[in-house]
Amino acid sequence: GLCCPGRDPTCLSAGRRPDGSTGPCYCDQACARTLDCCHDYAQACLVIPCVVSQWSAWSGCTEPCKTTYRVRIRHIIQEPRNGGEACPALEERAGCVEYWTQQGTECQQSLIPALITTGGFGKARKKRAAADGNERAGYCVEFQLVAIMPGCLHSHHSYTHWMHYLREGHTVCVECQQPALHSVSQHCYGDGTGSQKYQLLHWQAVGNHQCKGSWRRIRQLDTCSCPSVHSFLFI
């Protein structure tokens, strides 16, 4: 009945050894290396590996409205014995974001990727709003470009040439105008409202799904002051 883990000199019995001799013999795991096991060690102390259950379903994100993680777990069905294979990890995590709270309301703007296009369309927008007589004052947000996908340089259509001016490290201005200005929140989606300082936010260029990247919000202004090649619009 002795089956001891590791090397244990007290895990001792008196009986027959595999070579047929009699005398002290051992029932610890080390006996297989030292060749002094009792003759029935292999049968009495079978190696039993760890057995675990299937993974559970993934949980929801640990916190809504944040870039966080979800979890799935499994449990031990059989503990390892007699030097059997150890149990694997019982918890696994994966990154996730939920854009809605548990109450069903939309999360803060900072999580929503900004859709942008060239600022050249801004004049036409303002003319249309003025003609309708319902123009609302917009605003401008300055961002510092952190990362840009190579796809921005592979745009060869005339309407995507503006993407070639996107450069990492540059400051750009993105204007929030009608009709992108949300009538209730008075913000444009993806403008970074509510984001923490130095938080990485995401943007996507309209007209080329391969042109996207990340930036950091610097500040919000009443009007934009960037050069035209570095001025954009929220969609």
UniProtKB/TrEMBL annotation:
<dbReference type="InterPro" id="IPR001212">
    <property type="entry name" value="Somatomedin_B_dom"/>
</dbReference>
<dbReference type="InterPro" id="IPR000884">
    <property type="entry name" value="TSP1_rpt"/>
</dbReference>
<keyword id="KW-0325">Glycoprotein</keyword>
<dbReference type="InterPro" id="IPR039942">
    <property type="entry name" value="SBSPO"/>
</dbReference>
<protein>
    <submittedName>
        <fullName>SBSPO protein</fullName>
    </submittedName>
</protein>
<feature type="domain" description="SMB">
    <location>
        <begin position="1"/>
        <end position="50"/>
    </location>
</feature>
<dbReference type="InterPro" id="IPR044004">
    <property type="entry name" value="TSP1_spondin_dom"/>
</dbReference>
<keyword id="KW-0732">Signal</keyword>
<dbReference type="InterPro" id="IPR056801">
    <property type="entry name" value="SBSPON_C"/>
</dbReference>
<dbReference type="Pfam" id="PF19028">
    <property type="entry name" value="TSP1_spondin"/>
</dbReference>
<dbReference type="Pfam" id="PF25031">
    <property type="entry name" value="SBSPON_C"/>
</dbReference>
<keyword id="KW-1015">Disulfide bond</keyword>
<dbReference type="InterPro" id="IPR036383">
    <property type="entry name" value="TSP1_rpt_sf"/>
</dbReference>
<dbReference type="InterPro" id="IPR036024">
    <property type="entry name" value="Somatomedin_B-like_dom_sf"/>
</dbReference>
